[in-house]
Each structure stands twice: as structure tokens, then as C-alpha cells.
Amino acid sequence: MTIKAKKHLGQHFLTDEAIAERIANTLSFEGYQNVLEIGPGMGVLTKYLLKKRTKTYVVEIDTDAVEYLKANYLNLSERIIEEDVLKYDLNKVFKGETFAIIGNYPYNISSQIVFKTLEMRHQIPEFSGMFQKEVAQRICEKEGNKTYGILSVLVQAFYDAEYLFTVPPTVFNPPPKVDSGVLRLTRKPHTKLDCNEILFFRVVKTAFQQRRKTLRNSLKTFNLSNKLREDVIFGKRPEQLSVLEFIKLTTLIEADINY
Question: Is 104 helix (H, G, I), strand (E, B) or coil?
Fold first, then answer.
């Protein structure tokens, strides 16, 4: 039995075993027992995860893929979560325990998967896998570059991000129209920022919604005092600020709002 890739699910099945094994080896598997693979398809990556000394779970929305996995990976059948990962409460399975995330992520939901990981960052020490190349690069990008954006700042506030290697379209069925990129995120020692985190997320997202404007203009909706808006940091564009500068900016804004 083979599965036909479904366009509406963004499926492109990896066919290269060496690359699958290489992706499986991107996780350190240190300090946790559980691993969640998102979108396993026919299990090309899954088989290598099952060889590790961890408990592997998979979450898959495609009923054909679920049927295939149950038939071909009998030791996995009780750990297959047949759900939409974006809507499912993962703590129904993990119950507050630590787990890592890995996968060959569907391009159409890859950014949303990252945002869900950030929401659960206290439980997720490691995250790795394959994205559309430009998305993977954007997540790992540093300030001062045009591709540096919301995902870059929010991810790097809590994780060390590494772009590992590029994967060509030829190793997929069907082949995508673009290159893919594999990255690894390793959670930083701190799990809390030195600022109001809810406000931090809001500041970053608002700033980049009008990324060509200076912060003085893009953050007008915060109704900040004229004195604060004269600070030199407000003369910069969002792509010029490091994560630490965004934390500082959030602290300044919070103090001004509460004044």
C-alpha cells in the first residue's frame, strides 16, 4: 500500500532514507523521554525515531496515512494521534511532561506549528525538522537583514536557532517547487523574559506589521508619550533591533503605559 500525496494537506513525501536518518539525528534526545513527530506520512522519518531510546508519538490528520502506519508499524499503533495538531490539546497525551517535536512539516502550516511550540515552550526543550527553505532561514536570521521578522524574534527570544542543511526538491514525491531547509531549535536556559511577555509578543507583531516604517510610526497604536517616542530606539526600523533590544523596548513601553 502506498499513499497518494494530498495537495490540500500540503503533503510532499520524503523518499531519501539517508536524509530521513539525518533529520532524526538532529535531536539530542537528552533530558526527555518523549518525542512527537508531526505529519509522519508513510513513516520514512518515524522508523529512525523508533530506533532511539525514547517514546515516539506521531500526530497525523490523514486517515490513509494513519491506516498505513498502523499496518506497518505495529509497535507504534497505540501512540498514533489521529488529530489536527493545531487544534489538538497535546497535554491530553503528555499531561505536562517534557517532549521534543520533529517532523517534515507541511509548508502551509509550518509557521503555525512554530507558534504552537512557543506557546508550549516550557515543555519543549528541542524542536527540529524540515521547512520551506526561506521559512527556515527566516526563523534563524539575525537582525539587520530583510528576512528577519516576527518569527525570528519570537523564536530566538526563547531558543537558539540553527539552520542545518538544505534539501533539494528531487528527494520528494511529489517534488515541491522550492528547496527545503532543516533547522534545530534548542531552548535557552531561561524560560521567562525580563519583561511582560504578553506585551513583548504584541510589540514584536505590531512593529513588523509595518516593517518599512520606524518604530515611532509603526507603534502609534500604543499611544505612547511624546517623551518616550523621542528615545533613539524609536528612530529605528524593527529589522534593526536585536531580541535584547525588543525586550528593552517592551520594558520602556510597559513603564510608559503604566505611568
Answer: strand
* 50 lies in the same domain as 98: yes
Q: b/e per residue, 91-101, with b = 16+ CB within 10 A?
A: eebbeeeebbb
Q: Taking a C-beta distance cutoff of 8 angstroms, is the pair 58, 82 a contact?
A: no
144 and 228 share a domain? no
Per-residue pLDDT of 164-190, as tens digits, reads: 999 999 998 888 899 999 999 999 998
Using an 8 Å Cβ cutoff, are 232 and 252 in contact? no
**Domain range holding 223?**
197-257
Nearest to 168 by CA among 138, 140, 130, 204: 130
pLDDT tens digit string along 107-152? 889 999 999 999 999 999 999 999 999 999 999 999 999 999 999 9
Q: Which amino acid is at 212?
A: R
Cis? peptide before 174, omega within 30° of 0? yes
Same structural domain, 41 and 159: yes
Q: Kindly report the CATH number assigned to the domain that includes residue 216.
A: 1.10.8.100
Please give the model's pTM, rounded to 2 decimal places: 0.93
Instruction: Answer for the pair 128, 159: CB distance below 8 angstroms, yes or no.
Output: no
Same domain, 145 and 244: no
Distance, in Å, from the CA atom of 32 to the CA atom of 100, rounded to the nearest integer, reads: 8
Q: Which amino acid is at 126?
A: E
Amino acid identity of 36?
L
Whether 192 maps to a domain, the answer reads: no
Residue 78 has pLDDT above 70, yes or no: yes
